[in-house]
Structures are given as C-alpha cells and as structure tokens.
C-alpha cells in the first residue's frame, strides 16, 4: 500500500513496503500534534496561548492554529524527501530539505499575512521529519537517539558554514552569533537537540510516568527549557539580561518544586505577566517544547502497526 514506488531495482522499502504510508502519515500527525499541543499549553510565560498573546502584538491563538494548518502538508514532504535521499550522504540532505523548507515558510507567511509564527518550528520539524524518512528508508530504528544523531549528521558543519564563516549578518540569529557567539536554532539542531535530550525530555518522561498527566509533563519540560536554553529570541528582545532573567526565574520555580509546588499554575501566570511587562518571548523554547513532545511520542512507531494507527494519542486537542 505504498503511495510512492521503492527505488529502482528494489521491490520494497526496507522495513516492508506496507509500513511506508503508515510512517509518512504518523510522522506528519506527530509534528502537527506537537505544534498544537505547544500553543494550547496555558499559561506559558511570554508566549501565545489560551490566556493571551504573551509579549506579541501581531499574533494570537488563531494565527498559530491557521499557521499550523497551512504548514501541516509539508511534514509528509519532508519525510519523503529524507526517504528518497536515504542513500545520499547525510550532509547532502539539508539542501534538499531546505527547498521544501523555504516553500513551507512561504505557505506560513501567506497564511498569517506575513507574521512569523513557526519559522523555528519549520526548521526543527523539517529536519526531524526528514531524519525519520531517511532512517526509515535505511531500515534503522526510529528512536530518539537514532533520529537526533541523524539530525546532527544532516546539520554537520552548519554553524561553521552559515554563522562562523558567513559574510554580513542579515537575520537576527546571524547578528546574535556575531555579537554573543550564540548559535541558536542551528546550533541546537547540529548538536542533535542536546538541550532537549539533556533537560526537557527527561523532565517530560519523569513527570508523565509519575503523574500520568501529559499537561504536567509539558509544563515540566517547558520549565526545564526556560532554565537551560540559550534562546536567541530572548536575547534579540531583551539582550543577555533578558535571557538571564528568564533562566533565573525558571530555576527559582524549579527549586521551589517545579510542577509539584503549591500554586504552580498561579506562579506560571505571574511569570507570564512579568515577561509581557518586559516584552520577552521565549520562542525558541516553545519550538523545543514541541520537539520534546514529538521525540517522546516516537515510541508510537514501535508500538503500533499500520492497521492500528494511533488516532487517540496524536489527535489534536480541542482548541
Ligand atoms: C535556521 C533558521 C531558523 C534561521 O533563523 P535565524 O537566522 O533568525 O536564526 P535563530 O537561531 O535566531 O532562529 C530563529 C528561530 O529559531 C528558534 N530558536 C531560537 N533560539 C533557539 C534555540 N536555542 N534552540 C532552538 N530554536 C531556537 C526561534 O523560534 C527563533 O525565532 C531557519 O529559518 C533557516 O534556515 N533560515 C534560512 C532560510 C531557510 O532555509 N528556510 C527553510 C528552513 S528548513
Ligand atoms: N506559542 C508561541 N508564542 C510565540 N512564539 C512562538 C510560539 N511557539 C513558537 N514560537 C516561535 O517564536 C518565533 C517568533 O518569535 P518573535 O516574534 O520574537 O520573532 P521575530 O518575528 O523574529 O521577532 P519580532 O516579533 O521581535 O519582530 C517563531 O519563529 C516561532 O517558531
């Protein structure tokens, strides 16, 4: 039941032809589900959520939901791109993914009237969906370590190529590298999502195992990210002091017991108010929160076969 033919000379994709459509659909659902869960989690400091638009004046919940809808069709394309390039060296795959990535960014801007809702997420999920396609094509396991290592391989030398040796800085990320040495979204991807693997994913998995609550697990992951991630969005808006403020505040909440502390939700709402007052938005951590949920749910590839698609687990939460 594959929707596209196996490579010339092959009768089936490694792992069984019947798995291909299942994987393509599941990866797209997971990526979209991750974006929806991220934006609906409330309250999030400085970010767009159900409570308010955070430190943003040009976008709200509807803008994010519309944007997620517009970019969703690209997730399968990233998967297919990674799969069709599974024999090419990892570092060649980035150029292929990027042409779809640029088209996806265009679709995002067209849907939002020019507002940057998901630029960082398009980059992260373009790489992740491409890595899943590539590893599936190679018949390798679709687990956190394999997929993250593959992303790191695809992004090998990206920081050196695009930031270190780049000419005049044009984007915010390029400026911040030259000014402060921050490697932003590129550095995080090139490290194989080291901040996620070290801080937010363990926090998510521990709290979910302990409480059975996905919401609490997402909050635990968010706090872990806010305390540790060198978010270039915070530095762009508030300088190094803006980043330090957020990291200190999040570390304080963690020291007080994190999601298990009394009045945790009220503390998060107060954190939100403090960031809005300072015009700070941790957009990079929001992206990595979505990445955390996606990586946590990769186990669905192992647990289900294509006759039993996990509609429940990856269905979108009601807005
Ligand atoms: C690498 C990207 C994100 C470039 O953006 P930029 O130079 O502004 O870099 P920067 O690191 O500041 O990231 C922008 C976005 O990433 C997110 N982000 C910020 N900090 C971090 C961090 N520490 N970790 C992860 N994500 C982060 C935020 O959402 C931010 O808005 C990407 O958009 C890109 O490659 N652009 C070039 C055009 C292209 O190829 N687009 C298609 C990409 S598939
Ligand atoms: N819930 C969210 N709220 C706000 N930003 C988010 C959210 N989720 C993800 N982001 C990320 O934050 C980025 C937007 O941040 P921001 O608006 O600060 O960037 P910008 O458009 O480059 O800067 P500015 O608005 O200062 O011109 C998006 O690229 C997106 O990936």
UniProtKB/TrEMBL annotation:
Keywords: ATP-binding, Nucleotide-binding, Transferase
Gene Ontology BP annotations: prosthetic group biosynthetic process
Top-level taxon: Bacteria
Major enzyme class: transferase
Record has Zinc-finger as a keyword: no
Enzyme Commission number(s) of this protein: 2.4.2.52
Molecular function, one GO term: ATP binding
Keyword set includes Nucleotide-binding: yes
InterPro entries with a match to the protein in the record: CitG (IPR002736), TriPribosyl-deP-CoA_syn_CitG (IPR017551)
Catalytic activity: 3'-dephospho-CoA + ATP = 2'-(5''-triphospho-alpha-D-ribosyl)-3'-dephospho-CoA + adenine
UniProt family annotation: Belongs to the CitG/MdcB family.
NCBIfam families: citrate_citG (TIGR03125)
Protein's recorded name: Probable 2-(5''-triphosphoribosyl)-3'-dephosphocoenzyme-A synthase
Organism: Telmatospirillum siberiense
């Amino acid at each position: 039941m594959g929707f596209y033919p196996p490579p010339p000379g092959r009768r089936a994709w490694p792992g069984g032809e019947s798995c291909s459509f299942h994987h393509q659909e599941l990866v797209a659902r997971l990526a979209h589900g991750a974006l929806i869960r991220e934006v609906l989690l409330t309250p999030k400091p400085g970010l767009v959520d159900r409570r308010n638009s955070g430190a943003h004046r040009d976008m709200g919940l509807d803008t994010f939901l519309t944007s997620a809808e517009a970019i969703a069709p690209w997730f399968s394309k990233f998967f297919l791109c990674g799969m069709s390039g599974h024999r090419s060296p990892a570092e060649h795959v980035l150029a292929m993914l990027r042409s779809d990535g640029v088209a996806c960014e265009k679709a995002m801007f067209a849907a939002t009237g020019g507002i940057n809702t998901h630029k960082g997420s398009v980059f992260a999920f373009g790489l992740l969906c491409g890595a899943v396609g590539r590893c599936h094509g190679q018949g390798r396991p679709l687990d956190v370590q394999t997929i993250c290592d593959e992303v790191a391989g695809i992004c090998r030398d990206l920081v050196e190529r695009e930031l270190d040796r780049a000419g005049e800085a044009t984007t915010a990320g390029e400026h911040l590298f030259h000014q402060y040495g921050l490697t932003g979204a590129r550095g995080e991807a090139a490290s194989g999502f080291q901040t996620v693997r070290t801080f937010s994913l363990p926090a998510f998995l521990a709290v979910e195992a302990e409480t059975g609550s996905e919401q609490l697990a997402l909050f635990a992951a968010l706090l872990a990210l806010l305390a540790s991630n060198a978010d270039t969005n915070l530095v762009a808006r508030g300088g190094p002091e803006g980043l330090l403020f957020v990291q200190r505040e999040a570390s304080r909440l963690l020291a007080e017991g994190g999601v298990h502390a009394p009045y945790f939700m009220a503390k998060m709402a107060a954190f939100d108010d403090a960031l809005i007052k300072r015009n700070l938005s941790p957009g990079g951590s929001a992206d990595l929160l979505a990445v955390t949920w996606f990586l946590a749910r990769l186990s669905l590839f192992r647990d289900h076969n294509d006759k039993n698609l996990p509609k429940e687990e990856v269905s979108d939460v009601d807005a």
